[in-house]
């Protein structure tokens, strides 16, 4: 069951009322009973005083033997009742040794009752007593009581005292029964009335309190909850107007503030999301443009050579590129890696690629082309971007390979199962230092042999333990034979090594096989 | 990547620890920017540098240009020296 505060408070109020009633009734009953016993005891004292001075001629010692003395005592005792609430008065003998008492005489306030009782409890009637401590105290000379008796006729308080403390009447005890039934009834009426009044006051006060709480606290809280649930970030929030306690108003104000903030955040988020999707769309276009310039897979073959290339940027666009083209019976192969990743690298890459191709097509030597590109970009490079380039020219009819290196990774030479790294002059990266001083070198390729050029995204691919792929693994993985197989063997090995790890850098590789004996039809083949 | 800077008058030492790649390069760049203009001598202590990428090399060049020749690279491991050698940086940087 849900724990409703208002219900809980209501339940507690009812409990409080019931508890108040019980305590009130108990306290008043005890209090009135004490008052009744006090007043009865005072009357009993008066009776004792009166009985110690009986009328002249009434001799206590004659009580047992003289009928006249007994009736005299009866008359005298009845006269003492007056307007008191005493009901019976009786004289009896008791002793410490026996558990019985012997009546001498009994009188009642009521005439009819008096006739009846004086016969029932006449001289010599012996009665068993249960509780005898009162009698014993009376035998000691004290006024004792009240002994409370409750029967079908009502409630009675009994008091005992000795008739006289000397002589043969030493063991004659006077008993007086006071009827407090009427007292009790009156008290009960009072108690009921007072409890009723207190109940009405309590119920009114608590009811009012609950009504005020409901109106000023619980209804506003409920409305606030509904408002919170229904908060629509698309719509302007109307501030809530509750006229209630400061605490609730503070919560309301906080909620108003929060709603406004949330609406503001959502608005910002929407703008940001729009901007981001805009940027993503533009990035997508950029990626398509770059793939146009640097296809992910590319093959080029002709008389005496076969080239296969692969490029995979770490992000949408990257800074790696390769370029292969045939011109005047020679084949140019370029691979480059711009520092950094992403858009900045891609922009730089596009500039370098075009610059380099133009110079090479215009007939510049490899070294001259690289040095000139360096000089040009050094002047327009505020961000200190740089590029590493390995450029080569293969003569497919002789197998001569001329090359120039600008700080790029070493090419891997593959002749069947024999693999080794070519060690070109390292040169220096382009774009940072004005006098790059790139030089041109050359080597001869044997028939069927090939070389693999790649960017450091290959050797620096990471496995889940963050270990680099490295040159040794590359050397082991690279398969000889057709250029396409060489590329596939390396990309497969890198993919298996990374085992799903995020690609940390652009990966580009180009394999070139010298195939002098094969085919005589030159042609381009894109895929 | 862990970068600590120690200053002593117009000289400073920056210690690079771990991997200097595209992500940590910006932190390295920030450490450079935080250097006071009066610092003209900078030592890059690479004893605990495990890896350097091209983005990291670029920031070293920025540091070199900022110090106008006052940059010294020290304690580089064989692997890091290899990278410097392969990219030609060893010709331009003051490496000890």
How many DSSP E strands of chain B?
5
Q: Name the strands of the widest sheet of chain A in spatial order.
A: 14-13-16-17-8-7-18
Sheet with the most strands, sense and barrel status of chain B: 5 strands, mixed
In terms of quaternary structure, the protein is heterodimer
Unreliable sequence segments of chain A: 518-527
Q: Number of DSSP strands of chain A?
A: 18
Radius of gyration of chain B: 12 Å
Order of helices and strands of chain B: EEHEHEHHE
Element-by-element helix/strand order of chain A: HHEEHEHEEEHHEEEEHHEEEEEEHHHEE
State the distance separating the first and last CA atoms of chain A. 70 Å
- Overall spatial form of chain B: globular
What is the helical fraction of chain B, as a range of percent? 40-55%
Main β-sheet of chain A, in a few words? 7 strands, antiparallel
Count of helix runs of chain A: 11
Q: What does this molecule look like?
A:
The complex is a heterodimer of chains A (527) and B (96). By secondary structure, chain A is α+β, with helices and mostly antiparallel strands. In chain A, 45% of the residues lie in helices and 24% in strands. Chain A is built from eleven helices and 18 strands. In chain A, strands 14-13-16-17-8-7-18 form a seven-stranded antiparallel β-sheet. Chain A has a six-stranded antiparallel β-sheet with strand order 3-2-1-6-5-4, with helices on both faces. Chain A has a five-stranded antiparallel β-sheet with strand order 9-10-11-12-15, covered by helices on one side. In chain A, a hairpin with a 2-residue loop joins strand 9 and strand 10 (330-338). In chain A, 31% of the residues are buried. Mean pLDDT of chain A is 88; it is low at 518-527. With 96 residues, chain B is α/β, with parallel strands linked by helices. Chain B is 42% helix and 36% strand. In chain B, helix 1 (22-33) packs parallel to helix 2 (54-67). The two termini of chain B are 22 Å apart. The relative contact order of chain B is 0.19. Classes of the chains: A alpha+beta (527), B alpha/beta (96).
